[in-house]
Amino acid sequence: LWTRRRVVRQRFVICEDEKTLAKEYKSEIDKVMMNHDFESKMYYFDRYDNKFYNFVKKNNDFKVYILDIKTECGSGLDAARMIREEYDDWNSVIIIVTAYNEYKYDALSKRLMILDFINKMDNYRKYLNDCITKSIKTYDNKPNKLRYTYKNIIYNVQFKSIVYITKEPDSKKCLIYTNENRVLPYSGTIVQLYKELDDRFIKTSRSTIINKDFISLYDCKENKIEFETGQIITDISRSNRKRVMEHVRNN
């Protein structure tokens, strides 16, 4: 039985082999986050190994990566390429911290959408603070509403009010269940709808999407999710059970 502890809105991933510097990065993150009212979580790695890449692969939420250009095991540029190209994550923010400026032009030529290169030898605290602030704005500017038209009616549904979504059997229509006990129709496939949502939503099966923020508990034995609103779903496919557990743990 897993219960939800808190809602994490911003995830920071630091890969830096100098522990002193990593602590200073964390300190700058804390300074910025003091001005925001949502939770953040930090993950620390000291090398680009299987542990790092397994984390990147299984956690597809929006993240801010602060990557050392070079560690004893692996390169920050190779990690950035994997994040973008192998794992197809073009939404997360990547910041490179380096003492080797010559790598900057190499990375730009690869078009990896790096937010900035920060020189460890040049007032890096200020530049890192600026980058983290920009990263928060990037997240804040992401769409937070589902806008669509159904039978000549225009709907504007806040993501934060959607509890879960199901596909109507034998139909190309979906039903959106909100925290106000409203059930809204959506004309389109659940695959199309999923693309319109942000990273607080996950699929529990081919026919159901849930909002992680509303999870109250996940009963592994009975394979059911209970939401804070009292609503319950049991449509969790075998292939998605582990993924659901990981998300509940992380949140």
Q: Describe it for me?
A:
The protein has 251 residues and is α/β, with parallel strands linked by helices. The protein has helices spanning 19-33, 50-58, 76-86, 103-110, 124-140, 190-196, 238-250; strands at 2-3, 8-15, 39-45, 63-68, 93-98, 116-119, 145-150, 153-158, 162-167, 173-178, 183-187, 201-203, 208-211, 215-219, 224-227, 232-233. The strands form four sheets. It has a five-stranded parallel sheet with strand order 3-2-4-5-6, with helices on both faces. α1 (19-33) packs across α5 (124-140). The longest helix is centred in the middle third of the chain and has 17 residues, at 124-140. The protein is elongated.
Give the N-to-C terminal Cα separation. Answer: 14 Å
The shape is elongated
The biggest sheet amounts to: 5 strands, parallel
Mean pLDDT figure: 85
Low-confidence stretches: none
- The H/E string reads EEHEHEHEHEHEEEEEHEEEEEH
Q: Enumerate the strands of the largest sheet in spatial order, edge to edge or round the barrel.
A: 3-2-4-5-6
